[in-house]
Specification:
The protein is mostly helical. It contains 21 helices and eight strands. Helix 5 links the parallel strand 3 and strand 4. It starts with a strand and ends in a 5-residue tail after the last helix.
Length: 595
């Protein structure tokens, strides 16, 4: 800072420092007369200049910030307007789709063609002249040829699956399944129609074509002059269910709202020995309690009890690690290892016939698996049966907890169950022990086996498996979620393809067919909302495998389940609405036309 006096004897100063230097600092270091009045005047002038400089800088920054804020607010307003326009467009598109779906659902079905006049037969003239003749002479369900599918569901996309009939399949069982609940009703005038989309049958099984024509796989009966038998099924054909669980074939056949033929109604009664499932479930519970209550003389758990519970925890843990769309090989190996180890523990044995539907005969030749366990004996290790029960219980728990919310999760569970129960090392006298798993499913969801009940009564809810917690029934949504999960798992287990393996299918697709038949053929007075929920879960993610096994007959069955069965429900029912929506979804997403 250079200081000089002008002609008015006033000091003038010229700043010589750098830009970062303070004027006050320069002045304070340039003068030695620090207490003079002139110095203080100079310092005040310098401070005023510094103040003005800072003020102008602050004002400039404020103006810049205000401009930036205005620009940001303008951009936010533009984004909000664009988002509002986008949401309005999406709502308009969604409303249009919903309107189109409602129009498709409300569209009346195409009336079937008039039935040809049939000559009266002396044997069934009285039936045709009865008041209920119109109900028994309804038109058959149409069967669609595979080449009538749209492009998205072609014949190539549905490969022909083979269904092998086991060698020990009894002829009485074939007679029992004498007609398909979804097959077309024909007489001699229809004898020239071809048999379409029949599943292949293993010729090694020794089943003749005559017997095959009576199975539920045939769509057209062979020409015969004998009328269809309308006699009710004998009580010996199945175990009694009690007065509240027994279906009346005569009432069901005379109900015009049921499916077209009395033979369809008979199919709904083909689940035999339902009471036996209760016994198997009770025997498993008694075995589990006896093992888990074992203590030694000092009141401590026995080593056998500790070993069994350790295996149970391991199986439960690995089942929670299943991954969708994965082979899950490591998990399968862990379950197999636990079961094989339990077969070696022969400290306690139990009668194996307590856990099967029928008491099986011993195989003529000695049967030992590769680990040396005798699977032909009357009794099996208790630890093995205990772990099989734990495996089944864990499967049902996974289905209830995961498949209810994500139906795709049922697929790996079904694959694992089929893999374990088809393993010959775990077969007792040549057949699997899957009856234990089915008894557990029957206990949770009796709807799958043709049991029905009134949901508005306490007894009816108990019959259809409505769960209680703390003495009260769970909510409707919780109940429907449980039923949906178990139904999805049931479909995943029963619709497995064993055509590429030598192992026997532990639970063949005929059981899935019988389940659909039992639900669809329920009399109108006994139909409940749970049946619609179960039916939706059975079909939603398994219809393609069902069509793979049964072809055109599966399409006719789906038509009866998704088109005709909902017509018998209340229009304002949410469960009925979901079934109708599924029908529309199959047509829209997969090109499967059922209406």
């Amino acid at each position: 800072m250079n200081v000089s006096q002008n002609y008015n004897d006033k000091f003038q100063f010229q700043f010589t420092g750098n830009e970062n230097s303070s004027i006050v600092h320069e002045l304070s270091t340039s003068f030695t007369f620090r207490n003079s009045e002139d110095l203080h005047n100079i310092l005040l002038s310098a401070a005023q200049i510094e103040h003005n400089k800072v003020r102008e800088s602050a004002i400039n920054l404020f103006e810049l910030e205000r401009v930036r804020y205005d620009q940001e607010a303008f951009r936010n307003k533009i984004r909000e307007d664009e988002e509002r326009v986008r949401l309005e467009k999406e709502k308009a598109i969604e409303a249009k789709k919903n309107q189109e779906s409602l129009e498709i659902v409300k569209r009346p079905p195409t009336p079937p063609p008039s039935a040809p006049a049939l000559p009266l037969d002396k044997n069934n003239a009285s039936t045709l002249l009865s008041p209920n003749a119109s109900a028994t002479q309804q038109l058959p369900l149409p069967t669609r040829p595979m080449n009538s599918f749209p492009d998205r569901l072609t014949t190539q996309s549905l490969p022909t699956g083979t269904f092998s009939i086991p060698k020990n399949f009894e002829s009485s069982s074939i007679d029992m399944l004498n007609s398909s609940p979804f097959s077309t009703k024909t007489t001699s005038s229809f004898s020239h129609q071809p048999i379409t989309a029949l599943p292949k049958v293993d010729t090694k099984s020794g089943i003749s074509q005559t017997a095959l024509s009576n199975t539920p796989f045939s769509t057209v009966r062979q020409q015969s002059n004998e009328p269809f038998s309308s006699q009710p099924i004998k009580s010996s054909d199945r175990a009694p269910l009690g007065p509240t669980q027994e279906h009346n074939p005569t009432v069901a056949a005379s109900d015009p709202s049921t499916i077209h033929d009395q033979h369809f109604v008979k199919q709904s009664l083909r689940f035999e020995k339902l009471d036996r499932y209760y016994e198997i479930h009770r025997n498993m519970k008694n075995l589990r309690k006896s093992i888990e209550s074992q203590v030694d003389e000092f009141g401590k758990p026995t080593s056998f009890r500790i070993s069994c519970k350790k295996g149970r925890r391991e199986i439960t843990k690995v089942l929670g690690q299943l991954i969708v769309d994965s082979r899950n090989t490591a998990i399968v190996d862990k379950v197999i290892r636990q079961l094989i180890d339990s077969l070696q523990d022969k400290s306690e044995i139990v009668d194996a016939s307590l856990f099967t539907l029928k008491n099986r005969r011993a195989i003529s030749t000695a049967y030992l698996n590769e680990d040396g366990a005798d699977m032909n004996s009357d009794k099996l290790p208790s630890a093995f049966i205990y772990l099989i029960g734990a495996f089944c219980k864990a499967i049902c728990a996974q289905l209830v907890n995961e498949a209810a919310l994500k139906p795709q999760a049922a697929s790996p569970i079904g694959i694992l169950a089929a893999r374990i129960f088809s393993d010959p090392r775990f077969h007792w006298r040549g057949d699997s022990l899957i009856d234990i798993l089915i008894s557990k499913m029957f206990k949770i969801c009796p709807i799958l086996f043709g049991v029905c009940g009134d949901e508005s009564t306490h007894e009816g809810r108990v019959r259809i498996g409505w769960r209680k917690m703390n003495g009260k029934f769970i909510s409707d949504q919780a109940h429907f979620d449980r039923m949906s999960g178990v139904a999805a798992g049931y479909a995943a287990i029963s619709l497995r393809d064993f055509s590429r393996t030598r192992w026997k299918n532990p639970y063949p697709p005929t059981n899935y067919w019988l389940t659909l038949s039992a639900i669809v053929n329920t009399p109108s007075k006994e139909v409940c909302s749970t049946q619609y929920v179960v039916l939706k879960s059975l079909i939603e993610h398994s219809f393609s495998r069902f069509i793979k096994f049964y072809g055109d007959m599966a399409i006719a069955a789906l038509q009866a389940a998704l088109v005709e069965f909902p017509m018998r429900g209340a229009e304002n029912s949410a469960s009925v609405g979901t079934l109708r929506t599924l029908c529309v979804s199959l047509q829209k997403d997969h090109g499967l036309v059922l209406g």
